[in-house]
Amino acid sequence: MRYMPWHIERLDELVALWNKELQERFPMRTELFRQNSFLDKNISYEGSRIVVNDEDEVIGFVIVKVLKEETEVKMRDDIGWIQAILVDSQYRNKGIGSELLKHAEAIIKQRGLKTIFLGRDMYHYLPGIPQEDQHTISWFEKKGYQHDQSNVDMTRSYDQAEEIDWPSKPDAEFSILQESEKEEFLGFLHRCFPGRWEHEAVLYFQEGGTGREFVVLKENGEMVGFCRINDPDSPIIMGNINWAPLFDDKLGGVGPLGVDAKKRKKGYGLAIVQAGIAFLRERGINQIVIDWTGLIDFYGKLGYEVWKSYEGYQKEI
To answer: Running DSSP on this structure, what letter comes out for residue 151?
Structure first.
């Protein structure tokens, strides 16, 4: 058995191991794994590791991320993430997972970081441990990880013949972001939602995004809200369409969304989601997922139901 550096030459084997263990619930695609676990600039090649057996077959891995990107957007720089840790079920209870975790934590600590999150990374797969994986939860708790939040993914199917429900608010207009509005939009995010959402938007445009993945809300011509939408033609696979292979129909995703704090209490939040759904349905998307949320009652108003549940864990080091 050998512990090896993280390397893209093992991509197909890593995907195969993931699907051997998790395909029924979280089917992995090669393009998604490449995007999230190799192309992300925040991958820690020092902390990530691959384990192979005596036949040189991949039997485990851990993926670590730390903030390495140079960006003008203010991001927390005291966090390390364990994006995923997985060991072939035939090789468990041999200390492999513990060794991978020990190495990952040591590298994160060496960088002077204060907190480790399980999931929740940029280009993430999961916002926590799947709720049904109680053995995994117990394992991490024994390693000193503490529960800090609960989240869900929600979904709804639409009948193709079902009428599209567009929002209507006085003085408000909902539209797809135009390329010419890019700087105004980034300025709006910087002013109202500095941090991860702003950073993700900057990355989106760097990857060739044209604006079609953002619905904007304008009140009397002023940009006061937004909602991100994703579909199979989006330039980046975002979390709400990670598990598209589980559905027979094309999958769309909604979120995140936000409304200028000065413009709240007007029902704009639900309306911008409704607009995002309407634009997706106009594109022929009739299966939609809203991921990584605790707002069950909020999205329930639009007929969305809980699909997957997660428990968030972190560790102070």
So the answer is: E
